[in-house]
Amino acid sequence: ETMLSRSSKVAARSLSQRALYFSTEQVGGWRKTLASGYEMPVFALGTWKAKAGLTGAAVETAIKAGYRNIDTANDYNNEAEIGETLKKVFEEKVVSRDELFVQSKLWNSNHRPEHVEADLDQTLTDLQLDYVDMYMIHWPQAAPATGKQASTRVNGAIADHYSKNPMFPLDDEGYYCADMDSHYVETWKKMEELVDKGKVKSIGISNFNKAQIEEVVAIARHPVSLLQNECHVYLQQKDLLDQCNFRNIAFQAFSSLGSGDTNYASYASPTGTIPLRDEHIASLAAKYNKTPAQIMLRWGVQRGSSVVSKSITPERVIANFDIWDFELSDEDMKSFDKINVGWRHLLWGEVSHHPDYPFKDELPYGYQLEKCSNFAPGQGNID
Q: For residue 197, what pLDDT is reported?
């Protein structure tokens, strides 16, 4: 192979990447144009499981380090703290509102059309914003939910008896309540009205399976602009990525590092370890003089995905974003195939009694519905 042909291949690959993304020289890294027409920075700071009192500082560190996408949700119980930080960085002119992409999610207890806007309004109040750039249906199933009334952070982002109207309502026996008469298609139609009102720029879905995605696409008046699902080197979601590419839906990976030791896995991974301690990832980290996290995050964006990376440790927040100065070789990108073991850490079988639960085929044979065991889901870990 001549030097010229190798250079041509590199140039072609670079042009291909530029067709998907804009210049890496922009603050915030690569950007992707959504089906809605808006641009989204592909690298987002995650705030799921971020401990109260430390989340705001992590968001500020991230923005000052160049992050331009912040992923939130009202059930994380930290949007008010994030809102104070956003107000601060806007007032200090660290970044302007139109330079920052903020995404949030509709919680399961508010799927009924009459409850959707109340959910968003609480998020906007807490974040101190007039609009969010992306608003997703967090899960397809209306569970935990009663369907009786809207439930937001101010009612309690905890699991408690349904009579108290928390975001994670429990029945008398301690199982999650389920609103069996609610379906996400009707929820989606109400989400579209929020776009019409200017409270939301783009809308998307999260934790949906392939059939559910197609059902929403078939009726969508405003395009499905984003699918956010668990995705990492142990759960590479190749079929979903192909489906999203075909439907012009941006794919975004949450738990892009496998969620570390704070994962919610019901069973150990087939490798006997977690992605951050995988031997193959460690060998690539040594080869490229990068951290295992940087290798996995670079793999994510280089394959055409958006990634959400969470940490509240300042050094890790900054280091995780430092992935724009190297490129994994074609051979090394292909090598990730051998660790695609299909390990999903967030099954959440406790809500599988709802007909719209998306992962029934991944539950163990003979699975029996479990009672709630985590009364403050998604909150309070330090990493």
A: 98
